Amino acid sequence: MAATEVKTHFRTCTLCESMCGIRVDYRGEQIIAIGGDPDDPHSRGHICPKGYALQDLHNDPERLRTPLKRVGEQWLPIAWDDALEEVASRLLEVQASHGKDALAAYWGNPIAHNLGILLSMGRFRQALGTRNLFSASTLDQMPHQLVSYFMYGHSQMFTIPDIDRTSYLLMLGANPAASNGSLMSAGDVLGRLQGITARGGKIVLIDPRRTETALYASEHQFIQPGTDALFLLGLLQVIIQRRLSKPGRLLELAKGWESLSTLLERLPLARIAKQTGIAAADIERIAIEFASADRAVCYGRMGISTQEFGALNHWLINLLNILTGNLDRAGGMMFSTPAVDLLKTSGRGGFDRYRSRVRGLPEFNRELPTAVLAEEMLVPGQGQVRAFVSVAGNPVLSSPNGRQLEQALEQLEFMVSVDFYLNETTRHAHIILPPTGPFEHEQYDLVFNLFSVHNVAKYADALFPHPPGTRSDWDIFTDLCQRMERRKIARKPLPQRLKYELKARLGAFFTLQRILDQGLRQGPYGNGGGWLARLNPFAGKGLSLAKLKQHPHGIDLGPLKPSLPGRLFTRDKKIDLAPGLLVQDLDRLCQRFGAQAGKPGLLLIGRRDLRTNNSWMHNSYRLVKGKERCALFLHPDDADAHGLSNRDQARLISAKGELIVTVKLTADIMPGVVSLPHGWGHHRPGMRISTAQAHPGISMNDLTDEHLIDELSGNAVLNGVPVTLQRYREN
Ligand SMILES: Nc1nc2c(c(=O)[nH]1)N[C@H]1C(S)=C(S)[C@@H](COP(=O)(O)OP(=O)(O)OC[C@H]3O[C@@H](n4cnc5c(=O)[nH]c(N)nc54)[C@H](O)[C@@H]3O)O[C@H]1N2
Ligand SMILES: Nc1nc2c(c(=O)[nH]1)N[C@H]1C(S)=C(S)[C@@H](COP(=O)(O)OP(=O)(O)OC[C@H]3O[C@@H](n4cnc5c(=O)[nH]c(N)nc54)[C@H](O)[C@@H]3O)O[C@H]1N2
Ligand code: SF4
Ligand SMILES: [Mo]
Question: Of 669, 730, 676, 672, which is closest to residue 702 (Cα–Cα)?
Answer without folding.
Answer: 676
